[in-house]
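lol so apparently i was supposed to do this last week
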Amino acid sequence: MVRKSSLISKLSVSPFLGEDELVRVKGRLDNAPSHKYDERHPVVLSKGHFSLMLIRSQHKQMKDAGVETLITAMRNKYWIVGVRTLVRKVCKQCISCQRQDSRPQDQAIAPLPSDRITRSPPFLSWEWAMQDPHRHWGKNCTSW
Ligand SMILES: [Zn+2]
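anyway here it is w/ zinc ion bound
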């Protein structure tokens, strides 16, 4: 018997006590013999630490699966109260997912040197015109 104040009674699905003494829910797949018993009647779990650890384990097992994929995978066996919140929390806390979803940082652009932005006649600054990264310049700019 489920009390009215219990969290289970607030579920949109109807819970029942299974043969294995676990609280399960009746779903719409009740008359689908092709599905496993766990899929037809998933186990009800609260929004606690155990559920969080279960989701985290499934997330790693499925190689950093996204929110919807992870929810679908979890509902094959468990009916976790507030599963979307927990799955989002796991995905947000995962370091691999943070690295994968991060945006590249914008590169800071340095200001141009003053001799490049002041007006001057052409070839006044000969160093800039003769610049060659493969050529070695001596101390007095004589050996090249
Ligand atoms: Zn991840």
